[in-house]
Amino acid sequence: MVARLAMLACLLLLGVSSARASGPLLVFAAASLRNALDEVVQAYPGERPVVSYAGSSTHARHIEGGAPVGVFIAADRDWMDYLHDRGFLIPGTRHDLLGNRLVLVARPGSELALAIGPGMPLAQALGDGRLALAHPDHVPAGKYARSALERLGVWQQVKQRIASAGNVRAALALVARGEAPLGIVYQTDVNAEPKVRVVGRFDASLHPPIVYPMALVRGAERRADAFAEFLRNERAQRIFENHGFARLH
Known about the structure:
Layout (H helix, E strand, L loop, with lengths): L1 H21 L3 E5 L3 H10 L6 E5 L1 H9 L6 E3 L3 H9 L9 E5 L2 E5 L15 H5 L4 E4 L5 H12 L3 H4 L3 E4 L2 H9 L5 E5 H5 L5 E5 L9 E6 L5 H10 L2 H9 L3 E2 L2
Parallel strand pairs: 1-2, 1-3, 6-7, 6-8
Antiparallel strand pairs: 3-10, 4-10, 4-11, 5-8, 5-9
Helix pairs in contact: 2-11, 3-4
């Protein structure tokens, strides 16, 4: 029985290795990177990778489950730490790639005005609606938003009125479709969606630094290293900047 289990484990590992070697490079990236990273991939002079976009928590769980990923770009340090602590990253390949800002958004036709500050009447501004957030317990954008609202003393007002989404782009879509009157997303998400407008910007001191770390996943090939290096060069960084991301190096 033990021998059979050992053989099965070997076959599974060989299957993952074969998937890495035979198919295109697979990149897992935070959903908020979609537009910018798609453009970066088009500019890449090598073999173009396949990029999967989702919440960083979802990606981290899939990597933990053995997904044949070469490069992981998260939207916060926590999920990268999670994988590092469990030995899923190649030592020495982790870098902080980009920064971002957190904003409160509404539909363009909305006349709602709300100054972001301690004790702001956020619940009143929502009326009968809900506040769209990426899941505040485990998705980076939602965690940043919860931290900011707690620091402002208004989380208790709205915690039972959250329209929770699996990632920040899904939260953005709730506002764009008019299903939620307000949402908290990244500045770069607004740049990618004409059907929302910024009501206010959260001061960076209200939440942990919004950082997108990048690392190579254990078992990644040399082509993963080449693409990761391209993400940090001038051409790629200029594309990210054009989409509203901040340079960190």
